[in-house]
């Protein structure tokens, strides 16, 4: 912590005339005092309760924008409500303290807005925010420990008791009191807000909406499934996770290779449209296997194998109509943890967020933003010859073809290489793919459509 404070002192010395809210004396105090100075200007609890009526208004889908298949089950209402607030109310400069099992139990919202507005570099802000959150969690755990031992009138204890009351949770008798508060202490978790990331995702989607909607129509799949790409990456075509998940739909290598072409020159997971086609193939398969959309969507995260294993176990126990809500309550497995259990609830929250984005974020996406078509090369061709053909005026050429890795202009691409364009390409060298064929073939196999064709010399 000493090195971190030294960095902050240097930054403040350089920007002494700034309006940065920290005062110099803060940096000669202990960590807990510094923590109290950083946050808690506004607890955020008042905002949490005020947002409830707005959410309930969207929950009933007042404008009938959402397919009935994605109505919110009563058993998931608290979970969906929690994630809706994460996506629409709290930005990444805020952390929500909550119970890991009961998402209706929210203890506080820690606000780091002043820190994020400061002149400190990104890494310093991140380190300081993490350090502070550890201290916050430590203070809460101490309060839980005191409550487990008996009465506690300290501020944190009273705050916890108030949160339990608002969540309609009764404190058990004296004999079970210690276990009750110890469990709550273990269940304490923080969730970073995502509002700004979702707003950025809506910007990322601009230019692709018409083409993506066309793909959904061709596959005859509900448009609501687009929310998965926001859950995975906020539709970021450049996204790459620590474990190698890539593109807006975050395909891992094994699943990606099943549907998409992945070579030294091409990685179709990163293309905004071709990866969407791959995701729709996967989701269509999931639906065929799982029979219901809640299970099919959750299988995008957990895999159909785990979902079927859970259903099989519960059927042996006498359960009949088994959905995600039933699995959350009764299925236990090492791979069925917090992320897996909440995937469908997060998805539903995003479905309502995206379909009411005009009212929530005052953001509309043009329905007609330039249709982009799929083209295959009929012969070997260099980028030097491809680029002049792609004279797109409505889209970013590089982003539209983001599945093409950085190559030299003279690099030859094999016959059957996929390129995207919103202007017609010459049929002498390029084959325009019928959208219906995209539904019949995995994107990785589209190249077979030009096996018998060749470039015209005329």
Describe the structure.
With 458 residues, the protein is mostly helical. Among the domains are: 2-38 and 93-192, no CATH class; 373-450, no CATH class. It has 22 helices and eight strands. It has helices at 2-14, 31-38, 45-50, 52-59, 77-88, 113-117, 122-149, 155-166, 174-186, 195-205, 209-219, 227-233, 253-259, 274-290, 293-302, 304-316, 324-330, 338-355, 357-360, 383-386, 397-400, 435-440; strands spanning 94-99, 106-111, 188-192, 373-377, 381-382, 412-413, 418-421, 430-432. It has a three-stranded antiparallel β-sheet. It has a three-stranded antiparallel β-sheet with strand order 7-4-8, with no helix packed on it. A two-stranded antiparallel sheet has the order 5-6. Helix 5 (77-88) packs across helix 18 (338-355). The chain starts with a helix and ends in an 18-residue tail after the last helix. 37% of the residues are buried.
Write the layout of secondary structure elements.
Blueprint: H1 2-14, H2 31-38, H3 45-50, H4 52-59, H5 77-88, E1 94-99, E2 106-111, H6 113-117, H7 122-149, H8 155-166, H9 174-186, E3 188-192, H10 195-205, H11 209-219, H12 227-233, H13 253-259, H14 274-290, H15 293-302, H16 304-316, H17 324-330, H18 338-355, H19 357-360, E4 373-377, E5 381-382, H20 383-386, H21 397-400, E6 412-413, E7 418-421, E8 430-432, H22 435-440
Antiparallel strand pairs: 1-2, 1-3, 4-7, 4-8, 5-6
Helix pairs in contact: 2-7, 5-10, 5-18, 7-9, 11-14, 12-18, 14-15, 15-16, 15-18
Summarize it:
This protein is mainly alpha-helical and 458 residues long.
């Amino acid at each position: 912590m000493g090195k971190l404070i030294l960095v902050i002192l240097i930054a403040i010395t350089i920007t002494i005339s700034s309006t940065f809210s920290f005062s110099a004396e803060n940096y000669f105090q202990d960590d807990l005092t510094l923590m109290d100075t950083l946050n808690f200007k506004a607890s955020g609890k008042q905002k949490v309760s005020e947002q409830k009526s707005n959410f309930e208004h969207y929950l009933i889908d007042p404008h009938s924008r959402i397919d009935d298949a994605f109505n919110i089950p009563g058993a998931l209402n608290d979970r969906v409500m929690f994630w809706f607030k994460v996506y629409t109310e709290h930005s990444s400069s805020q952390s929500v303290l909550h119970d890991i099992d009961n998402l209706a139990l929210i203890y506080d919202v820690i606000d780091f807005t002043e820190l994020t507005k400061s002149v400190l570099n990104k890494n310093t802000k991140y380190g300081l925010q993490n350090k502070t959150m550890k201290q916050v969690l430590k203070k809460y755990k101490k309060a839980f420990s005191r409550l487990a031992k008996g009465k506690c009138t300290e501020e944190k204890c009273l705050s916890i008791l108030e949160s339990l009351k608002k969540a309609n949770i009764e404190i058990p008798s004296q004999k079970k009191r210690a276990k009750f508060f110890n469990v709550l202490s273990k269940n304490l978790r923080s969730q970073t807000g995502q509002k700004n990331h979702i707003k950025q995702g809506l910007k990322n989607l601009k230019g692709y909406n018409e083409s993506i909607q066309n793909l959904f129509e061709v596959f005859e799949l509900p448009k609501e499934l687009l929310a998965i790409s926001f859950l995975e990456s906020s539709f970021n075509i450049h996204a790459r996770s620590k474990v190698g998940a890539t593109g807006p739909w975050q395909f891992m290598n094994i699943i990606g290779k099943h549907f998409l072409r992945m070579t030294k020159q091409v990685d179709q997971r990163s293309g905004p449209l071709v990866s969407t086609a791959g995701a729709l193939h996967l989701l269509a398969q999931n639906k065929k296997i799982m029979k219901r959309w809640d299970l099919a969507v959750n299988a995008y995260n957990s895999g159909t194998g785990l979902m079927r294993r859970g259903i099989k176990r519960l059927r042996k126990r006498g359960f009949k109509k088994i959905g995600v809500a039933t699995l959350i309550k009764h299925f236990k497995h090492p791979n069925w943890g917090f992320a897996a259990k909440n995937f469908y609830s997060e998805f539903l929250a995003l479905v309502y967020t995206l379909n009411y984005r005009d009212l929530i974020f005052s953001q509309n996406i043009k329905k007609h933003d330039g249709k982009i078509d799929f083209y295959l090369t009929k012969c070997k061709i260099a980028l030097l010859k491809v680029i002049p053909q792609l004279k797109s005026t409505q889209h970013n050429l590089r982003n539209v073809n983001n599945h093409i890795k950085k190559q030299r202009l003279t690099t030859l691409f094999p016959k059957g290489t996929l390129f995207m364009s919103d202007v017609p390409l010459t049929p002498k060298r390029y084959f325009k793919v019928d959208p219906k064929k995209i539904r019949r073939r995995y994107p990785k196999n589209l190249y077979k459509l030009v096996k018998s064709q060749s470039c015209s010399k005329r």
